[in-house]
Amino acid sequence: MRWYNAPGSLEKSIVLKEVKFHEAFQVPWHVVCRGAVCAERQGVKGLSQSDLERIARLYQRLQTYVGWTAADLTRLRTAWPLVEPHVTSLVEDFYAAIQREPETARIITGGSQQIARLKLTLAAWLAELFQADRDAPYAARRWFVGYRHVDIGLQAEYVSAAMSRLRIGLVTRLLADWKGNAHDLMETLAALDRALDLELALIDDAYQTEYRRRLQQMERLATIGQVAGGIAHELRNPLNVIQTSVYYLKQVRDAPPQKRNNHLERIERQVRNAERVIAALNDYARLPLPVCEPVDLGRCLRDLIRDIQWRKGTVIHLRLPDEPVTVSGDQRQLGVVMRNLLANARDAIGENGTVEIVVERSAEGVELRIRDDGCGMTPEVLAKACDPLFTTKPRGMGLGLALVRMILQRHGATFDLESQVGQGTTARVRFRSTQEGSP
Length: 439
Ligand code: HEM
Hints:
Elements: H1 10-16, H2 18-25, H3 29-45, H4 49-66, H5 70-83, H6 87-100, H7 102-105, H8 111-131, H9 136-151, H10 156-177, H11 182-251, H12 257-285, E1 293-296, H13 297-307, E2 315-319, E3 326-329, H14 331-348, E4 354-362, E5 365-372, H15 379-384, H16 400-410, E6 414-420, E7 424-432
Parallel strand pairs: 2-4
Antiparallel strand pairs: 1-3, 4-5, 5-7, 6-7
Helix pairs in contact: 3-8, 3-9, 4-9, 4-11, 5-8, 5-11, 6-8, 6-10, 9-11, 10-11, 11-12, 13-14, 14-16
Bound molecules: protoporphyrin IX containing FE.
Protoporphyrin IX containing FE binds near residues 43, 121, 122 and 144.
C-alpha cells in the first residue's frame, strides 16, 4: 500500500504547541493528546483485522478519487501555524452551535464536564487533520469518530452540518490571515476541502456499516422470535395428542387390546413428528460452515432423482452439459439444497406433471434451474416463500426454502424464484465462476 505522507512527525509538532492548548482549556497536555492517542487505542479495539483492512483500502480508494496527494498534506502542515491560534475559537463556536440546537444538545448528557472533554477531543482532531500521516491507523481512528457518533445516537445529518460549520470557520480564518500568494492559498483551500471530504466519507461509511450491522442483528432477533413461536406451535400439536392418549391409557386400564394398540401407535407417530420438527430446526439453527470440495452437480442430481418418491406419471427432463459440471461447495449442504428444491417441485405438480432440471455453464459461472409446471404461487406467497416457518403445505415446517437460501448465501451463490399461478415455478441457483471446482 502507498500512503501519502509529508515529512515530519505529528507527535513533535503537537508537543510544541502544548502550552497553548493547556492555557486555553485549563487541562494538562496529556489530556489534550488523549483525543488522538485514545481514539487510536479505543478505535481499533472494537474493530476486527478485516474491518481495519477494509477501512484502509476504502480510504486509499477515496484518496485517489478526490485526488489527494502528499503535496496536500504538506500544504496543510504549512497552514497549521495560521489555524492553530484559532483552534480555541473554532472549538467554542462548534459547541455553541451544538448547545443551541435541541436535537444535538440532548445528546450531551454529561453537562459542562463532558463539553470540556469534547472540546479537547475536537482540538486534537483538528491538529491531526492538519498534521498527521495519512496511514492505516489514521483511517481507522477517523472512521471510529463516525462509529462513536452512531453509538451516541447522533443523526448523521448533524455531523455533516457541524463539518460545514467547521469548514467555513477554517476557510474564513485562512483567508483573513494568509500572507502568501493567491495560487498557494487556492491550493491550500483545495487540500483542506479534500481532507474534510475524506473525513466525511469515512464517517459516512461508519454510519452505513453500523446501521447495516444493527439491521442484521434486529432481523436475526426477529427470526429467533418467529422461530420460537413456530416451534411452540409445531410441538403443541403432537404433545396434545400424546397427552390425550396417555390420559386414555391411564384411565381405561382394561381397554380392548385393539384400542390400546391404536393409542400406542398414535403416541409413536406423534413422537416421530416431534422429532422431525426438532431435526428440521437443528438443521436450520446449527448449519455448520460449508466445507468446500468439488461437487459434481450432475451426479448429485441423478442420485437425488432416483431417491425421491415422485408422483405417478411425473415426467422428468434432466439436461446436463456433456462434460461433468463441478462447483466448489459442501457436498452435504448442496445435497440438501437440491433435495429441497426437487421435493418442492414434486409437491407442486399434480399427476402427470413435468419437472425440468437444467444445468448450464455461462461466462459468469454455473446455473441450475429446476422448473415445474405445477400450481405456482401468488405474488404474496412468493414474497414470503423463503421466510423461516412460512409454509402452504399441510405438513410442512416452512424451513425448506429458508435453509436453501441460507446455505446458498454461505456458499456465495445466488438464489431466486419465479412463479405464476397455474403455470408453475422456476428455482434458479447461480454459482459464480470462482466457485467452479476443478472437474
Ligand atoms: C465535524 C463533526 C464532528 C467531529 C469532527 C467530531 C469529533 C469527535 C471526536 C474526535 C470524538 C471522540 C471519539 C472517540 O471517542 O474517540 C467525538 C465524540 C463525541 N461527539 Fe463529536 N464530532 C463531530 C460532531 C458532533 C456533533 C454534531 C455532536 C452533537 C452532539 C457531537 C457529540 C459528540 C459526543 C457526545 C461524543 C462522545 C464523547 C464522550 O466520550 O463523551 N459530535 N466527536
